[in-house]
Amino acid sequence: MDKFVDNLSPMDLMRSEKMTLVQLIIPVESAHRAVSYLGELGLLQLRDLNAEKSPFQRAFVNQVKRCGEMSRKLRFFKDQIVKAGLQSSIHPVVEPDVELEELEILLAEHENELIEMNSNSEKLRQTYNELLEFKIVLLKAGSFLVSGNNYAVAEERELTENVHSNHSYDEASSLIEQEMRTADQSGLRFISGIICKSKALRFERMLFRATRGNMLFNQAPAGEEIMDPLSAEKVEKTVFVVFFSGEQARTKILKICEAFGANCYPVPDDFSKQRKIIREVLSRLSELEVTLDASIRHQNKVLTSIGYHLTQWMSMVRREKAVFDTLNMLNFDVTKKCLVGEGWCPIFAQPKVQEALQRATVDSNSQVGIIFHVMDAVESPPTFFRTNHFTNAYQEIVDAYGVARYQEANPAVYTVITFPFLFAVMFGDWGHGICLLLGALVLIARESRLSAQKLGSFMEMLFGGRYVLLLMSLFSIYCGLIYNEFFSVPFYIFGGSAYKCRDATCSGAHSVGLIKFRDPYPFGLDPSWRGSRSELPFLNSLKMKMSILLGVAQMNLGIILSYFNARFFHNSLDIRYQFVPQIIFLNSLFGYLSLLIIIKWCTGSQADLYHVMIYMFLSPTDDLGDNELFWGQRPLQIVLLLLALVAVPWMLFPKPFILKKLHSERFQGRNYGMLISESDPDVEPDSAREHHEEFNFSEVFVHQMIHSIEFVLGAVSNTASYLRLWALSLAHSELSTVFYEKVLQLSWRYDNIAIRLIGLAVFAFATAFILLMMETLSAFLHALRLHWVEFQNKFYHGDGYKFKPFSFALITDDDD
């Protein structure tokens, strides 16, 4: 057996790649190029040798800051391009790589240019908005002044006020060349302006309270939306004119206008002056529109030219920042002429890494080569599995529970088949399986296009699991053919039924029963079971027993994998005192139950398996009577029960005592060690000579006891947990039947096209959102639990850590 196992060819995914700890001694002049080449290769995980230092104490902190500043400028360019409604080039211009210093200067020039253009555009836009508001106030306030003249005294003067937060309206001084004439203190005066529509009501109330009602407030909608310079959104505004009397009231009103952000504009009561000012304003507006258009065109031209290179520049800066971050993980030697690094490298990648380092030495014209040295490792290496598009999703399912320990058996090898199959056992319907298959094929057909796009979280998860969805749909079709369900409807696909009615009218087919008249249905369930009196008891019995068989088979697979783990790591104790008693205990009870199920199916016996298993423990020596399935069943049960009882102390006691004995033999005679002076400089404080392994027997025994109790109880609970296969399969089938019979068939009984269409729409909605989405998610989660808890806990430790090489391909936009 051992020779047969040794001769088996290794599987790529069964064990993680063999790793080695390497040391790099890199001359300073070739360090940057060497790290860049390693990033392109992506097969070396460097360790941080400066973990005790803060980021600001590292050697290349200034270069990292410069790269961060350049990233900020590139994000600023990207935001400006998006704000302008432009798009950066999908296929960027490929140019020879520029130096980092040149790119830094170029980005600074572009940033200054854009900031200046934004400042000028903002000033122009603000002036344009003020002139536009002035024009609206002039047009709307005229009607108020006409009505105001009915109340005004003959010597009424106009009051013109111009209140601006930034006093930028001086450019429009030509519009108000004539100063306001000083009004008579006893005359009627007014202030006109414009305010946001949402503030108009509160503004009017505040004016009324401040003036004690001694004012007249008129308002009118502006008629067009005006750009808000702060939010860059168009808002509705209202033109107002406030009539009042007295200098004190004027001061209060101006303060309130300033507080509410209302802009006040001078409006003369002379119509000839109004027309003259309106003409000047319209002239200025047309000039500003031309200037603004030219400014926007120029800014878009600059942004478009930046957009052609933006992707390339962002990629270059990200790579440079990653290189300097990695260089900060290396350590300077005492001469400050070399950088020393350590890292994990797969054994198969050693020649590639050495070749990349040699190229870096040649390309940097260094007189000293890079030293590549293999070291002995004390800690456990990282775990690295080489996956492809198909196997990566299944590996991620396993890694979500825990990353495999180094060289530990990988459950993903079996998860590729068992996960979609157990899902299909719960979801079996070949109509629903075809729907899932179409969705999976669409995702696979558009794989190249979708992989290049930035997807949402849900769509990204669905696209990442496209091959999982593919196998789930195929196995669902297979299990659906076994259950003979197509949207809960049975079909005579593989021939006619093996049953017929008792009479020609077939009136008692669903109440009295059917007569079997020929060989069984060749594949899957006979369609005649559907709707019969015994349909539910038959399906319950079938699916419950099938769930137990599948569960015991998968748990046995997990225990067998624990044997291969122990054999791989040369741990004979785990084989003799863990694998053997576990396989005996599980199969003495539930393996025997599985055997009884198969014998009952093959013989057609009417034995009650519940009674057999219960009285196997309560009365093992009693006669089985009608529940006897084969000769010698009673003595076999007694033997199996004794084996199960013996297996429990077999798991519990020997291993801790043997470990204690081995430990005492290993350190026997070491009670008297060599005296070492505390001031001896040749002895390191953490050296192996000083290291003494601690062994706590009570801790080991308690751990073994917990493990044994967990397995014994888990054997029962895990077997019962596999009954979820039966429960969810039954629930899915019954839900499908309810939607088909109570929605689709019920609506089809009406001779009304509208009712039929409504019934069809409800059936399609229920199928899509309940059966294809909610039920799919439910079956997926239950299959996930069966693998994580019931299967993997038999052999899988999952306490390793992933191999994370330094690779430019793994750098994302979030790293900016």
Automatic annotation (TrEMBL):
Main location: membrane
Coiled-coil annotated spans: 100-127
InterPro entries, per database record: V-ATPase_116kDa_su (IPR002490), V-type_ATPase_116kDa_su_euka (IPR026028)
Annotated GO MF terms: ATPase binding; proton-transporting ATPase activity, rotational mechanism
Pfam families associated with the record: V_ATPase_I
GO biological process: vacuolar acidification
Transmembrane segments annotated in the record for this chain: 421-444, 465-483, 546-566, 578-599, 636-653, 753-774
Location(s), subcellular: Membrane
GO CC annotation, single: vacuolar proton-transporting V-type ATPase, V0 domain
Membrane topology: Multi-pass membrane protein
Keyword list, A-Z: Coiled coil, Hydrogen ion transport, Ion transport, Membrane, Transmembrane, Transmembrane helix, Transport
Family per record: Belongs to the V-ATPase 116 kDa subunit family.
Job description of the protein: Essential component of the vacuolar proton pump (V-ATPase), a multimeric enzyme that catalyzes the translocation of protons across the membranes. Required for assembly and activity of the V-ATPase.
Protein name: V-type proton ATPase subunit a
